[in-house]
Structure formats: structure tokens, C-alpha cells
Amino acid sequence: MLLAMSSHAQQLKIGYFSYDGILTSMPQYAEAQANIDKLRQQYAAEMQRAEDEFNKKYEEFLDGQRDFAPSILQKRQSELQELMSRNVQFKSESARLLRNAEEQAVAPLRLQLEQAVRLVGSERGYTLILNTDHQAVPYTDSTVCEDVSDYIKRLLK
Hints:
Number of strands: 3
Oligomer: single chain
Helix content: over 70%
Largest sheet: 3 strands, parallel
């Protein structure tokens, strides 16, 4: 039984690589991240503008609250609450939109990487190709496993 297992193990060809490491080294990844960063800055600028507007209205409210008639005071409080609510909603929505934009920007790169991994596996006869990210594979035996990063990177050029 031990002999049968060892001969079977010798037939296995296992590769490994860092998915995130290769993904982030792709030239298109840097371009996608630059576009996402630009969008993030636009959202941040809009959030800052909205915050500044709220702060200005709040200061005006504080300065005049003693002199306002009760109905005006109530109207201004409602305006401030509505403005705050819209700002919170915008912040939440912009975070969601940024996540979606990032996923969409990186999706073609992930597909390209996955195709390269499949091609390397097929062409080089690997039984398995493992992703070593996040300590998923804390140990590899170099007599049984091979780092396939260079093969994948060559295909992605």
C-alpha cells in the first residue's frame, strides 16, 4: 500500500503561486487602480463639499437660533437633519459604487490571470496549482511542488 501511494505521489505535479502577487504586478492593474483612485478622490471631494455645506448651515443655525421664531427654528432643524441624512446616504452609496467600480475594473484582469493559470497547468502537466495567498499553503516541498509564478507572468506579458 505504501509503495502504491508513493508511486502515485510521484505522478502528481503540483504548482503554486501568489494570486494577489501576480494580479497586482500586472501593468493593467496599476492603470485600473489609478482610475479607481481618481474616482475615490472625486467622491472624497464631493463628501468634503457636502460636509462644508452642512457645517456652514449648522454655524448659521447656532448663530441665529436665539432670534428665530419657533417655526423658523423648527424648519432650520429639519433642514439640517435632512442634509445630514443625505450626506450619510451619499457616503454609503459612494462606498458601494467604489466597490463595484473596483470589481468591474479588476474582473477582466482576474479572467486573464485565471486563463493563464489554466494554460500553464495544461501545457506543463500540473495536477494542481495552488494559491499561496493568506497562508493557505504554509509549506511546500520543493521536491514535489514548483513555483509557477514565472510561467504565468510570461503568459500575461
